[in-house]
Design brief:
Layout lengths: L6 H9 L5 E5 L2 E4 L2 H10 L7 H17 L5 E5 L5 H4 L6 E5 L5 E2 L8 E8 L5 E9 L10 E6 L15 H15 L3 E4 L3 E2 L15 E5 L18 H18 L7 H16 L5 H31 L16 H9 L1 H27 L5 E6 L8 H5 L8 E5 L9 E5 L4 H6 L3 H10 L5 E4 L7 E6 L8 E4 L2 H15 L2 E4 L9 H7 L4 E4 L22 E4 L8 H6 L1 H8 L7 H21 L15 H14 L4 E5 L36 H5 L2 H12 L22
Parallel strand pairs: 3-7, 8-9, 8-21, 9-12, 12-15, 15-18, 19-20, 20-21
Antiparallel strand pairs: 1-2, 4-5, 4-6, 6-7, 10-11, 13-14, 13-16, 16-17
Helix pairs in contact: 1-3, 5-10, 6-7, 8-10, 13-14, 19-21
C-alpha cells in the first residue's frame, strides 16, 4: 500500500510545482504515490526522503519565497501591464537592460525580447531577473490553406538513396505549391537521431532537437559533390540505387542504417573537397552563429563514434562536456568534429532551400516542421545540457480510459527551475534554430508547455506524477520566437488536456489540432460533431501518422491489424462492431450533408475513393484555418506509419508510401496519380464543385480554402 503523503510533504510539493494528485477523468481524483513525489522533488534538488528533511526543505522554501521580490523570469505581453511588476512594493526602482542594448528605468513600451531587469525595493531587497516581452498573440495565418502531411523518410523518389530526403521535400513542395495550390507541407521531426545498430527509427526520440539529421541530405545537391574525383563515390551511388530498388521493387522495409552508412561514406568524400572562398565564408558564419551548441553537438557525435552512443557509459571524464578530458579528446578528434559541424551546416542549408522553394512556389506557409517532446537520455542534448534535465526521471502519460497502464516515453524532462533561472535560454535557442527554416512549427504534446507527467526511472508509468512548468513563460517565449520568424505555430493538443490550456493557446494565436474521428459531441450525445461546431483556430485532418489511414478506418482493417498483433483488449467481434458503428455514424452524417451519395446505414455504400473524398469535403465545411491531407490517403494506403503499443511486432517508421495493394509509390508516381489529383480537386473546387473566389480573413466558413 502506498504510504500517506502527509500535510507537510503536500505543501512542499506544491511550492515546487509537483502535483500530489491528478484527475484521469473529471469525476475521479487519484493521489500520487509517495515515491513519485519524493523522487520528483529529488530531481529538482529538494530532499524529501525523511520527515525531518521535508520540514527543513519546507522551511527553506517558504523563507525563500517570502523574501523574494520576483521570480527568476517574469513575462510581459506588449500592450498590457506586467502582473509580476504590478505587485512590487511602492517605490521600487527598476533598471532594465534590453536585449537591444538600451537601458530603461520603466517597463512601459519595451521592445520585444528577453531583457535583464533589476528591481530594488525601498527596504534594500534586490532582484535581478529575466523579463520576457512578447507580442500579445501571433498573427493569423494567411487566409485558409490546405496542404500535405507526410513522413519524409517514406517519400521515395527515383533519386532517393533508399529513403526520402531533403531533395524530395523540395520537389514535393515545389510541385504541391505550383500544381496543387497547396499552402504547406508538414513533415515529421527531422532532428538528429541517436546512432546505433540498429538506430531507433522513431523521429520522436532523437539525440538532439537542436540540430537536424544529415541522413536527410540529398548528397548530389551538395555543391562539392561535382568535384569529387574518386571511384568510391561511383560505387556508393550504385549502392544507393540498390537500396532504393530494394524498397521500391522488392518490397523491403526502409533501412535507415544502410542508407546512413552509404551517405556517411559519400559525405566524407564530399567533405574532403576544399570549400571555395564564398562557401568557406558561409560555413564560418554558421559556426560563429551556432557557437558552443554546435561544438558540443559535433563533439558528442565524434565521441559517440569512439565510445558508443550512450554518454553515461563513456569514461568518467568524458561524461562532462566541460572537463579537461573532453577538451583534450575534442582536440584529438578535431577532424571528426569538423566533419559533423560541416554536416550540420549542409543539412541546414538544404532545409533552408526547401522552405525558400516552398514560398517561391506560392505557398503561404511553406514547410511545417515538427518539434518532438524531448530527447534520448543518452544523446547529444542530454550530454551537453545536463544541468537542464531532471536526472532519474522520464516523461510519459498517466493511466487513462485508453491506456490503463500509462505510458513511459523514455525522455528526460527539462527542469522548470533551471529553465526559469536561465531565462529559458536552451528553449529559446532551440526554437530559434528550428524557425530558421520553418514556415510553421507543430509542437508535439503542446500541453507539455504547462505540465508533464514525470515517471521515476525503474518505476511503472502509473507511479508518476505531474510537474508544472511556468506555462505563461513557455508560451511567451514560443510566441516571441515565432513572431520574429513570421511563422505559424500548431499545437498537437489531442487527448486529455487540463482546463484552460486550449483557451490560453488560442488567446496567443497558437492553432490546435483536430482529427475528424475524435471530433464528437462529448458533452452531449456523443455523436459526430457537425462541421459548423468545429473550432476555427486549428489544423483539421482526417488522420495522423499514429492513426489508421482513412481507407483502413473506413474498411475496418485497422481492427483486423490490431487483432493480428494481439493488441485488442476486448473480443474481436466487439471491436469490429464498435468500429463499424463509428464509421456508419460518420458516413450517415456525410450523406445527410450532401457530401456523399448513398446511405451508409442500409443502402449500397459508395466507393472507398468517394468516401475518402467526402471526408475531406466535410473538413472544408468546418471553419478550420488549415486543412491537412495525409499524403498516403491520396493513393489509398492502408497501413499506419506508426502503431502505438508496438515495437518489433510492426515496422514502425520504416514503411514507404504505398497504394491500396501495398505497392510502394514513388514521388514521381504520386505527382501523376489520378486518385491524388481527384482528392486535391475536392479541396481546390470545394464541396459545391465550383471554384470559389478568395475569402478575406474573419469569414467564419469560407466555401473553399485558398492555396
Amino acid at each position: 500500500m502506498t504510504a500517506p503523503l502527509g500535510e507537510e510533504l503536500v505543501r512542499l510539493a506544491g511550492l515546487h510545482g509537483v502535483a500530489t494528485a491528478y484527475q484521469p477523468s473529471p469525476d475521479r481524483t487519484v493521489t500520487a504515490s509517495r515515491t513519485a513525489v519524493v523522487r520528483a522533488l529529488a530531481a529538482l534538488g529538494v530532499d524529501a526522503a525523511t520527515p525531518r528533511a521535508v520540514r527543513e526543505a519546507l522551511d527553506a522554501r517558504e523563507r525563500e519565497l517570502a523574501g523574494r521580490l520576483l521570480p527568476p523570469t517574469v513575462v510581459g505581453w506588449s500592450g498590457g501591464p506586467c502582473a509580476a511588476l504590478a505587485g512590487l512594493p511602492e517605490g521600487t526602482r527598476l533598471r532594465i537592460e534590453t536585449e537591444q542594448g538600451e537601458t530603461r528605468d520603466s517597463a512601459e513600451d519595451l521592445p520585444h525580447g528577453v531583457h535583464r531587469l533589476t528591481a530594488t525595493a525601498p527596504d534594500g531587497r534586490t532582484a535581478r531577473v529575466h523579463l520576457v516581452v512578447a507580442p500579445p498573440r501571433l498573427p493569423t495565418p494567411p487566409g485558409r490553406s490546405y496542404g500535405l502531411l507526410v513522413q519524409l523518410y517514406s517519400l521515395l523518389s527515383r533519386r532517393s538513396w533508399g529513403m526520402g530526403d531533403l531533395g524530395d521535400l523540395r520537389e514535393l513542395a515545389d510541385w504541391a505549391g505550383r500544381v496543387l495550390g497547396a499552402g504547406f507541407v508538414q513533415v515529421n521531426p527531422l532532428h538528429a537521431a541517436v546512432p546505433g545498430a540498429p538506430t531507433d527509427p522513431s523521429p520522436y526520440r532523437p539525440s538532439s532537437r537542436r540540430f537536424p539529421d544529415p541522413v536527410h541530405l540529398r548528397v548530389e545537391d551538395v555543391p562539392e559533390y561535382a568535384y569529387v574525383d574518386d571511384d568510391r563515390l561511383r560505387l556508393l551511388t550504385e549502392r544507393a540505387g540498390r537500396l532504393r530498388e530494394a524498397v521500391l521493387e522488392k518490397g523491403e522495409l526502409i533501412d535507415r542504417d544502410a542508407v546512413w552508412e552509404a551517405k556517411r561514406q559519400a559525405l566524407e568524400l564530399v567533405a574532403a573537397v576544399p570549400l571555395g572562398p564564398g562557401r568557406r565564408a558561409a560555413y564560418c558564419d554558421f559556426l560563429a552563429a551556432q557557437g558552443q551548441a554546435l561544438e558540443d553537438h559535433a563533439t558528442w557525435c565524434a565521441l559517440a563514434e569512439v565510445h558508443g552512443a550512450e554518454w553515461n557509459r563513456w569514461p568518467e571524464g568524458l561524461r562532462d562536456p566541460r572537463s579537461a578530458e573532453t577538451a583534450r579528446a575534442r582536440g584529438e578528434l578535431m577532424h571528426r568534429v569538423d566533419l559533423h559541424s560541416r554536416l550540420a551546416w549542409l543539412t541546414d542549408t538544404q532545409l533552408t532551400a526547401a522552405q525558400r522553394t516552398a514560398r517561391e512556389a506560392g505557398m503561404g506557409v511553406g514547410v511545417v516542421h515538427d518539434l518532438a517532446v524531448g530527447v534520448h537520455p543518452g544523446g547529444a542534448d542530454a550530454w551537453a545540457q545536463q544541468e537542464y534535465f531532471a536526472a532519474g526521471m522520464s516523461v510519459g502519460a498517466p493511466p487513462d480510459a485508453f491506456n490503463a497502464r500509462g505510458q513511459d516515453w523514455g525522455l528526460p524532462p527539462w527542469r522548470p527551475d533551471r529553465l526559469a533561472a536561465s531565462g529559458y535560454t536552451p528553449y529559446r535557442r532551440l526554437l530559434r534554430g528550428l524557425f530558421r527554416y520553418a514556415g510553421a512549427l507543430r509542437v508535439d504534446h503542446v500541453m507539455g508547455l504547462f505540465r508533464l507527467w514525470w515517471v521515476p526511472q525503474g518505476e511503472a508509468p502509473t507511479e508518476g506524477t505531474y510537474v508544472r512548468y511556468d506555462g505563461e513563460a513557455m508560451l511567451a517565449v514560443l510566441v516571441l520566437e515565432a513572431s520574429r520568424a513570421g511563422a505559424v505555430v500548431i499545437g498537437e493538443d489531442l487527448g486529455t488536456v487540463e482546463p484552460g490550456v486550449r483557451e490560453a493557446l488560442r488567446e496567443r494565436g497558437v492553432l490546435g489540432t483536430s482529427v475528424l474521428w475524435f471530433e464528437r459531441d462529448w458533452d452531449g450525445d456523443g455523436r459526430p460533431l457537425p462541421p459548423d461546431r468545429w473550432r476555427a483556430d486549428c489544423l483539421a485532418t482526417a488522420t495522423t501518422h499514429d492513426l489508421p489511414s482513412t481507407a483502413a478506418r473506413l474498411s475496418g482493417e485497422h481492427v483486423e491489424l490490431r487483432d493480428r498483433l494481439g493488441l485488442l483488449t476486448r473480443p474481436l467481434e466487439e471491436e469490429r462492431a464498435e468500429a463499424a458503428a463509428d464509421t456508419v455514424e460518420w458516413l450517415d452524417l456525410l450523406t445527410r450533408l450532401g457530401l456523399l451519395a448513398g446511405a451508409a446505414g442500409g443502402g449500397d455504400r459508395a466507393s472507398e475513393e468517394a468516401e475518402v473524398q467526402a471526408v475531406h469535403r466535410f473538413l472544408l465545411r468546418t471553419p478550420a484555418r488549415m486543412i491537412g491531407v495525409w499524403l498516403p490517403d491520396g493513393v489509398g494506403d492502408r497501413r499506419p506509419q506508426n502503431l502505438p503499443g508496438t515495437w518489433d511486432q510492426y515496422p514502425n517508421w520504416r514503411l514507404p508510401i504505398a497504394d491500396g495493394e501495398g505497392r510502394p509509390v514513388t514521388l514521381e508516381e504520386l505527382a501523376a496519380s489520378p486518385r491524388l489529383h481527384a482528392l486535391i480537386d475536392v479541396l481546390r473546387e470545394g464541396p459545391g464543385g465550383a471554384r470559389a473566389p478568395a475569402v478575406p480573413d474573419g469569414a467564419r466558413v469560407p466555401e473553399v480554402p485558398q492555396g
